[in-house]
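Q: Structure for this?
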Amino acid sequence: MKNRKKVGFVALLISLVLLFAGCSSDSSGGDSKGKSGDTIRIGVLFPLTGPLALLGNDSYDAVQVVADMVNDEGGINGKKIELVKADAPDATAAANEAKRLIVNEKVPAILGSYSSGISMAATQVAERSNVVYVEANAVSDEITERGFKNIIRVTETASMMGVSAAEFANDVISPKLGIDAKELKVVVMHEESSFGTSAAKAIEKHADEFGFNVLSIDSYNSTTNDLSSTIHKYKELDPDIVFAASYINDAILFVQQSKQLDFKPKAIVGTAAGYALADFAEKLGDDADGIFVAEAPSLPNPELLSEEAKAIQDEFLERWHEIKGTEPTGLTWRAVNAAWVLFHEALQNAESLDSKGIKEALLNIDIPEGGLPNGIGAKFNGPDEDHAGQNNRAKAIIMQWQDGDFKLVWPDEFANTEPIKIPLSN
Amino acid sequence: MITQLILGGILLGGVYALMAIGLTLIFGVMRIVNFAHGEFVMCGMYIAFFLYSTLQIGPYYAILIVTPLMFAIGWLLNEILIKRLIGAEHVTQIFVTVGLSMMLTSGALMIFSGNFLRVQTPMTTKALDIGGGILVGLPQLIAFVISMIVSAFMFVFLKRTMIGKAIRATTQNRMSSTLMGVDIKKVYAFTFAIGTALTGLSAALLMPMYPVFPTIGVNFVLMTFVVVVMGGLGSIPGALLGGLIIGVIETISAYYIDPGWKQAVYFSVFILLLVFRPQGFFGQIGAEEL
């Protein structure tokens, strides 16, 4: 008897909960429809807490600044852009949050993310629901290799970084060291997630093409506490160049332990992520000096930029300095590009402000090199091409830490200054 | 090379051991799985960092402040939170300590943002050449030596002092020790505070080697659990041996196999150990049931 009562009570409770849930989702649905009269709601998904929070927040703030810039100029036909914030610290959260943005918030487009794992999960959900997803900062090749129709990636792929790193070694480091490319001894170390692995593969492939001797390829987990074994191994192999695809914890650890264990390669070429962050140079001081980084461009040679790009760059910089008081990095510019492409180029020209209209407008974009604030252009691969949705005018360039400043040194049309400290130990 | 690797591993393991001793005490005595242990290390590192950046107190001197401070924090946490978990369902304990760890991580993220903070000392990249081209990192060596001294001290403390004996008695059998008049509540409070104080000590020792950021705890906590279970719940020599073994396995497998495989290798060793000696090196059979 007692049990039956209990069951009855639970059933009542469940039905009540369902009723409320039904009501609330109805009402929120009504609300968002009501609001969409004067705002355009865009989902913005970044890791805002957890291990990647530093970079995620940097990107989110950049997107917010660009949205403000567009809104202050009158928005999209009088409609303001409203960002719907989603925090995705890991892949599971990314999938859930993407679902929430699409199902509950009913956004027509999502802009994200940072880190390939997060992007892979979130884009999967977007693709299933046919909602356009603009990728800002995740570089792993896999993301655009799946033949998805709804992903647009503005930034370069990890393998583009790998290619630039290898080309730079071939074009600049090898002649400056006076070592023929065929004699050049290199090692490749990479963190073991999708980002590090695709960058390393690209480096290896092109290193082989140029005829470098790849002595060793080592993977490791980016949360490692110790890289001394790898460094000891490299000391024995005595490579001329270390290529490294790392996040920040491991990048700092590698440089610090290399110094401690007296390992001095003639050049270190990192690929984006850890090596490119201001924290990296700040924490390491002089030890970071001379390290090369394949990265999305930031503050390229002003001559490269179109009038409009220059104007966006200046305005963004002004607003950014005001809020953050720091210099934007390549990562920040990637987020700026993605937000600009989506908010300014696509939304302005979309025939309809639903996912289909926005996607079509994105695919119609044709911005020549120098047209975006960091010097790249934008033209996306069609849905039936390889790497569908990838920006084929994205570019990885080479930056170098010079006395605590991050300088663009290669290729020449982007460069502001000459590469120095080749070899590194002098 | 092998000497270099083993030496490097032992030094690395010394720090793991120190963290593990704190955890094993709490685990062994209170039967509480403290998932927030790594985050305590993170808190300790932030304290050490701010002592350095505001008062110019070097991390090694900071030990004298961070350790008692973390002791007090541990005591307080026990009073507020942990003591209510004694004898609670495992699920409850896990939720509370995991929740605590998330709270600390997110709190740190809000207060300090995700930036990497590092104590700038030339010590960080110093190494001693001990002959034959074998290099020993100086901060690693200092951390190891202090770890060993503290472990020895803890061992003697548990063997000789009254409270130490009470702690050991509680580890062996909670019920009987209560019947023998041991003040269980005091033992618990003391154990938790010591465990937390040891994270403070490890934190200060880590500060010259690693930058601090909100999720640094994650980098250490998994390993620490492996060390504790390997050594046997509540056993200090076990934690010590476990820590050193994990350290050596890490450096050797990273060199001869691939750094990406080191976790796989030490977990394989761990699983083998559990098959053949489920109580760990020095554990008591069925200790988790008492």
